[in-house]
Amino acid sequence: MPEVDLLAALHQHFNFPAFRPGQEAALQHVLNERDTLVVMPTGAGKSLIYQLAALLRPGTALVFSPLIALMKDQIDSLTRRGLAATFINSSLDVTEQTRRIRSLSNGDYKMVLIAPERLRQHAFRAALKQVPISLLAVDEAHCLSQWGHDFRPDYLHIADARTDFRTPVTLALTATATPRVQDDIARLLGLAHTERIVTGFNRPNLTFEVFSAPDVAAKLKLVREFLSDVEGVATAGGGIIYTGTRRDAEEVAEFVREVIGVEAQHYHGTLDPDTRARVQDAFMAGDLPIVVATNAFGMGIDRPDVRFVLHYTLPASLEQYYQEAGRAGRDGLPARVALIYSPKDTALHEYFIDNDSPSADELRAVHAFVRQQPHGLSFFDLERALGLPQTKARVALEQLEAARSIQRAPDESFGLMQLEALTLTEASVRTIAAQVAIRHDNKRRQLQAMIDYATTNACRR
Ligand code: ADP
Ligand code: MG
């Protein structure tokens, strides 16, 4: 590889004066054809690493990301800079998808952003085999690991795809990965040796605070005091209040609006997609100062001037807390992150943890049910037929999918999952059940670490 003047490339393509910490070292490794794992906090500039690498490597770079809603914006800003880039996801109609896949196999693009579920499609994988893929980037790589906080079984297909593409240089990026999750990422991508760039997690502009409140009335009083302390939220910058339940999100949003008199909207996973998009867009555009949300308001929220993140309920783990709290102060200016701790919140988490651990019998029942439903099923069907709460059904499906005992169809019609039941041996039931048990214990440990954070007298940083 000839020496590349990385700084000149940065100026030329992105017009930034300098690299941020970790960017240049990561790029250097990738250009030297070393598989690389990058762990850098939210807002640190991870996308620039794969974007510039895509430009500087010969051939096409494939970038996997789960954030379908944000793909278009990212690609638009690259094409404005004259980079031949595109995205392929389910928001495009089939004709357009086919057209882009054809251009991709013609080698027309330097960078293609795709969602990992695309890899379920055999036609897509076949088309890709023609293309010289010179870089494979995996964004939000913690989604590979069951020990991360956002496991997505579709990410597990990336490893075989990588072999299909004759194992191109691979770059995995994430904002949250404990050493265990880092090892998992490397293993699940099939990387024998990785260079690791782990920049500091410290965010000096964030102030960490914990308040304790015995009950709801005390919590709401704290919310009110907190908001009156955060100067000019409504005029300069915004804030996020995270709650543990959808009901709390609605009630606290109403409290902020009606009682405190500051504009706020709630956001959670059961709102219809249009409302969700409207709330998110208004917040991102700076038109809405406060969002009160469950953890569904998450990845990809990169409004720079978020002045506070207040947790109304204890999060499930420190990793999740740091990820959510880290959405504050991405512009580098001072921001407050605060947690309201009520010992009662622990019970809610314990309930969640116990309710998302399917037993061996439940795993067998879910598998048998999938086999009887060749035309698709919903979580509601599973709940009605087997009496399984949705979270448990979801974990059962994820685990069965990760164990390759069920397989998802490439294209699912709206609202229904199209699943095919493959073989499920007693040995794999035992393996999955053991995995579920380890996961259960691990979640309890993570919760305990979160409680320790909330109750410590030592420095939280
Ligand atoms: P993340 O690490 O969370 O994925 P992004 O890639 O979204 O972060 O980058 C956050 C912001 O930082 C973007 O607006 C990006 O343009 C900007 N950025 C990235 N690298 C640099 C740089 N070297 N100089 C200035 N701004 C940068
Ligand atoms: Mg990112």
Largest sheet: 7 strands, parallel
| Strand composition percent | 15-25%
Give the distinct bound molecules.
Answer: adenosine-5'-diphosphate, magnesium ion
* Spatial separation of the terminal alpha carbons: 42 Å
The class by helix and strand makeup works out as alpha/beta
Instruction: Identify the strand order in the major beta sheet.
Output: 3-4-2-5-6-1-7
Kindly provide the radius of gyration, computed on alpha-carbon positions and rounded to a whole number of angstroms.
Answer: 23 Å
The parts where pLDDT drops under 50 for at least 5 residues are: none
Q: Total number of helical segments?
A: 17
The dominant shape is globular
How many strands?
A: 15
State mean pLDDT (0 to 100 scale): 90
- Can you give the helix content as a percent range? 40-55%
Structure write-up:
It is a single chain. By secondary structure, the protein is α/β, with parallel strands linked by helices. The protein is built from 17 helices and 15 strands. It has helices spanning 6-14, 23-31, 46-56, 68-80, 94-105, 122-129, 158-164, 179-189, 216-229, 246-260, 273-284, 318-325, 345-355, 360-371, 379-386, 390-402, 426-455; strands at 36-39, 60-64, 85-88, 111-114, 133-138, 169-174, 195-198, 206-212, 238-242, 264-267, 290-293, 306-311, 335-341, 406-408, 419-421. The strands form 3 sheets. It has a 7-stranded parallel beta sheet, with helices on both faces. Helix 5 (94-105) packs parallel to helix 6 (122-129) and helix 9 (216-229) crosses helix 10. Residues 46-47, 139 line the site of magnesium ion.
